[in-house]
Amino acid sequence: MAAGLLLAGAATGPSAIAAKKKNKGSVKKEAFGKTKDGKTVEAYTLANKNGLKARIITYGAMLTEMHVPDKNGVLGDVVLGHDNLESYLDGHPYFGVTTGRVANRIAKGRFTLDGKEYTLAINDDPNHLHGGTEGIDKKVWSARVSRSKAGPAVAFSYTSPDGEEGYPGNLKMKVTYTLTNDDELRIDYLATTDKATPVNLTNHAYWNLAGKGTILDHVLHINADHYTPVDATGIPTGEILKVDD
């Protein structure tokens, strides 16, 4: 399975361009702490030639910061997150994580594939949510700085073993973050498996385009004529309804 997510940054201010016009971008690696079982977590900060920055940590292949300029060229962090690993380990609503094996809910934690029924971990009673109690968002991924003509990039990899959280198959995943010199954050997904299995990877970042304060003044427009309603537990009812004007 391969998929991509493309997020365009704000227009770059003249001052940022002048300061970085000779720079093709960079990747900086730093220690970000240790998990409760002693695994080292690292942070990778990508900076493109225009001064935009994105930080991703190996815990959950998680986007923790995204600094983009406003109309005056002043950088602001538009991604919600914590400044330290301990706050993530104490629990959080999936801030910026790579979510899976299957993002969103699976009804009652059960599915049938090739005539066999599989039972998954229940972590959003009565359903299975975002890969389970110990989904890929709670794993320490390996990281490798990736070569890209588009801009600085880092590839994160994790193999989910057969049976993890109830899913079949050994699933190898690679998530590549690229901060392009066209001021785009690209997130590309690649997954391979040795057994039929459901896969639905995504990123769970929370965005505040103002960089601070409330998002209640934000306006989101989705080009859709229909939607799929859900029941009280967040599971689609099977209906496809028309969007009211």
From TrEMBL:
Similarity section: Belongs to the aldose epimerase family.
Entry annotated with the keyword Isomerase: yes
GO terms assigned for molecular function: aldose 1-epimerase activity; carbohydrate binding
Entries under Gene3D superfamilies matching the protein: 2.70.98.10
InterPro entries linked: Ald1_epimerase_CS, Aldose_1/G6P_1-epimerase, Gal_mutarotase_sf_dom, Galactose_mutarotase-like, GH-type_carb-bd
Protein name, as recorded: Galactose mutarotase
RNA-binding among keywords: no
GO biological process, any: glucose metabolic process
Keywords, ordered alphabetically: Carbohydrate metabolism, Isomerase
A family per Pfam: Aldose_epim
